[in-house]
Specification:
Layout (H helix, E strand, L loop, with lengths): L2 H27 L2 E5 L2 E4 H13 L6 H23 L6 H12 L6 H10 L4 H26 L3 H13 L2 E12 L5 H16 L4 H8 L10 E6 L5 H8 L10 E3 L2 E13 L8 E10 L5 H17 L14 E9 L5 H7 L11 E2 L3 E11 L4 H30 L2 E3 L1
Antiparallel strand pairs: 1-2, 1-11, 3-4, 3-6, 5-6, 7-8, 7-10, 9-10
Helix pairs in contact: 2-3, 3-6, 4-5, 4-6, 6-13
């Protein structure tokens, strides 16, 4: 036997061994780590999600992989629920989601994709993550949108509550751990471990990105400024007893347990919550007789005068058809009901719809307005309430999906 033939056999053996090792490693990477309703999550999927979490500031370690697994389970449940509803993310929606997500890193979509590639995150893993978010958003809006949207009465109640007293607002960050029936103790134990890390000097935002399951996790748990009137009474009391920079004990809520960091506090009455005052001009068209015909004629005249009005500085030519009265500053709430309803959303210079009175049909022009809630602010408040309700409903829905799912951990 020659040295060359021996070397060839050894080299061949090494190559075979290496090939077997590579194949075994690949088989392990793509082996099931978790099965969610027959939907497989591989160890490769877990590794990819862990890299994505690290990109957002999470630190490597066993707990990182655990957080990745839990997120992937939720994503699979979201995607499955979306498929049952006939929903999927198309390429345009995925591109928009990438652009939106990239803003968290102060990048455009192309820059963010380059960053993920350099971190070893493949496009399929990224699309799977963002696609589940897109589908979930559509599903939650379709399922709960009407229920979450406040009525005008509910919106007025929120505004009246805010106007009634000065409120304290808190700059809040959160770490939320979901907990189904019988799982609250486990969630509390997880939060206690997180609090021990905080006491050792860990950064709250980093831990929120790593462990929290709330939508705010991607922003380091930052919820923003929240007035205490928007908080459940028990949580508002806990916040009141937590100094700036402090962290609350674990707090139970529907669907889970959370801890909150109070970044800062401030006392405020939002400008829109102040009672609105108006100065008005009343243009009164007298009724010429009684009955429906007289009212209809006065209504037509009032509509004509309204069309000609251009603020209080340029009143229409009345020609004896109407009289004008100035109404000095009055609280909108103190006006008679029909007048209040007609002017409460008007801004300076705008004229109201015709308002029927005992012996006239009137239009009211707003000369000045201070305080109060304009339509743009009402729309913003409506969106805030709707978003808050949708978040709670979505969390409860996801917990229902988890409770009903068959989840097999390997």
């Amino acid at each position: 036997m020659t040295m060359l033939s021996t070397t060839r056999r050894v080299s061949g053996g090494l190559l075979a061994t290496l090939a077997f090792a590579v194949a075994a490693a690949a088989q392990t990477a793509f082996a099931p780590a978790v099965i969610v309703n027959d939907d497989i999550i591989t160890y490769y999927d877990v590794g990819q999600r862990a890299k994505l979490l690290q990109l957002s500031g999470a630190q490597p370690g066993p707990q990182l992989n655990s957080a990745a697994v839990e997120q992937l389970i939720d994503d699979r449940l979201r995607a499955q629920a979306g498929r049952r509803a006939g929903l999927s993310a198309d390429p345009e929606e995925l591109s928009a989601a990438i652009e939106e997500f990239a803003q968290r890193f102060n990048l455009d979509g192309a820059g963010f994709l380059a960053k993920t590639r350099s971190a070893g995150i493949d496009r399929q893993a990224l699309d799977s993550f963002l696609g589940s978010q897109v589908v979930w958003r559509e599903l939650v809006n379709a399922r709960f949108g009407a229920r979450a949207t406040p009525s005008e009465v509910e919106l007025d109640q929120e505004i009246a509550l805010a106007a009634a007293s000065q409120t304290k607002s808190y700059r809040i960050s959160e770490i939320a751990i979901p907990a189904g029936p019988g799982q609250e103790a486990e969630a509390r134990a997880a939060l206690e471990r997180i609090m021990r890390e905080l006491r050792r000097g860990a950064d709250f935002a980093t831990l929120a990105r790593r462990y929290s399951r709330a939508p705010s996790a991607a922003n380091g748990g930052d919820v923003g400024w929240v007035p205490d009137s928007m908080l459940p009474p028990d949580l508002a009391q806990i916040m009141a007893n937590t100094p700036p920079g402090g962290v609350t004990p674990p707090v139970a809520a529907p669907g889970g347990v959370s801890i909150y960091r109070v970044g800062d506090t401030r006392d405020e009455v939002p400008p829109w919550a102040r009672e609105s005052e108006v100065t008005l001009r009343r243009i009164a068209v007298p009724l010429d007789g009684s009955g429906q015909d007289a009212t209809a004629a006065a209504m037509a005249t009032a509509e004509d005068l309204k069309a000609q009005a251009n603020g209080c500085g340029s009143l229409p030519e009345l020609g004896g058809r109407a009289t004008v009265e100035s109404i000095d500053r009055k609280l909108v709430s103190a006006l008679p009901g029909p007048v209040r309803d007609a002017v409460q959303l008007l801004q300076s210079g705008q004229a109201s719809r015709p308002v029927a009175a005992n012996d006239s049909v009137d239009i009211f022009i707003v000369c000045e307005r201070s305080g109060g809630v304009d339509e743009e602010t009402r729309a913003q408040l409506r969106d805030q309430i709707r978003t808050r309700r949708l978040t709670r409903l979505a969390e409860g829905f996801l917990q229902d999906l988890r409770r009903e799912a068959v989840i097999e951990r390997r």
